[in-house]
Write a structure and sequence with these properties.
Length: 166
């Protein structure tokens, strides 16, 4: 029994005496370990499905005024409203207010290209040279919309129509 324990300890000591990695190899291994820990800290994005903003929401939150709205795909129902001083989306049944990013690009009627609200931010990019008159005070533009979470991960994106007017 003692001989087996001594032999086991000898094997363990021999394993510890193996060649140490070079400083460059150790640095590479450390970088891999750090990258793995950092990747594990940011969870994958959870997709979000924005809800249609209807007239009851517009009336309740006083969303009237000039600006732009975005409707995904071929829908005419907006999922985002952008005004010079505020923006809105409806997510999980709650209307979320957004603040315009003053440093982002300008859209028609004083709206901005980027808005931030709590854990989300969104960007609306429209093809301003391709707008077509859709009403006496509105113009429709082909547009691209992205909603991002607090980790700047895309949780919703869509091509659609931005309608700007008053």
């Amino acid at each position: 029994m003692r001989v087996a324990m001594i032999a086991g300890c000898a094997l363990l000591l021999a394993a510890c005496g193996k060649d140490e990695p070079s400083p460059a190899e150790q640095a590479r291994m450390d970088e891999q370990d750090v990258a793995a820990v950092e990747a594990a800290q940011v969870p994958p994005p959870t997709p979000v499905t924005p809800e249609r903003i209807g007239m009851p929401d517009i009336e309740k939150y006083d969303m009237f005024g000039a600006g732009c709205s975005f409707a995904p795909g071929t829908s005419i129902a907006p999922v985002a409203l952008l005004q010079p001083k505020r923006g809105f989306m409806k997510i999980e049944g709650k209307v979320i207010p957004f603040a315009p990013d003053a440093g982002s690009g300008d859209l028609p009627l004083g709206a901005k290209g980027k808005y931030t609200g709590g854990t989300y931010s969104f960007v609306l990019d429209l093809a301003s040279e391709e707008g077509t008159q859709s009403g006496s005070e509105t113009i429709n533009y082909p547009a691209r919309f992205e909603l991002r979470n607090e980790h700047d991960q895309i949780v919703f994106q869509s091509d659609g129509t931005a309608q700007c007017g008053s």
